[in-house]
Amino acid sequence: MRIVLDTNILVRANAKAKGPARELLQVIVNTPEHVLLLSPFLLMELERVLSYDRVRAVVKLNDEEIAEYLSYLRAGEVSEIVFPGPAPSVVPSDADDDPVVHTAVVGRADGARLLSTARCLSGHRCRDARYPSLPRAPRGILTTEW
Fold first, then answer.
1. CATH value at residue 97
2. For residue 69, what are the CA distances in angstroms to 31, 41, 72?
3. What pTM was computed for the model?
4. pLDDT tens readout for residues 2-35
């Protein structure tokens, strides 16, 4: 299964994390049938979010640990990096979500599914994420289908 995790999940899945987001990332990475899809946008957004003081206070990562986590995610055995080009707006209520959706589309995410902690992307049907070989989705993690 080809899967995109949004930045909120990737923040919660960092190397020091012990919660369900980290477990989900590890299952994806350690299951040969799964491919984690990332894009330069997602990686830059993750780096930006992890540098916020309020986020650092929660995740307790220093600059070196952030760099290591980003390097880990960029590794070919961990993820596939896709390069979405310019594309039309698909999330009218929040254009910042467009590159995340474009990552899923260009990366051919299975069923165009995106795991996110966002409530719901405007105009799309959301439900609990339940994949046969993934752990039960943590409360608040949704899959968005369009």
1. 3.40.50
2. 19, 16, 5
3. 0.77
4. 999 989 899 999 999 998 899 999 999 999 999 9
Residue range of the domain that includes 120: 2-145
Structural domain count of the chain: 1
Task: Note whether 22 and 129 are within 8 A (CB).
Answer: no
The DSSP result for the chain, as a single string, is -EEEE-HHHHHHTSTT--SHHHHHHHHHHH-TT-EEEE-HHHHHHHHHHHTSHHHHHHH---HHHHHHHHHHHHSTTTEEE----S-----TT-GGGHHHHHHHHHTT-GGG-EEESSS--TTSEEEE---TTSPPPPTT-EEEE-
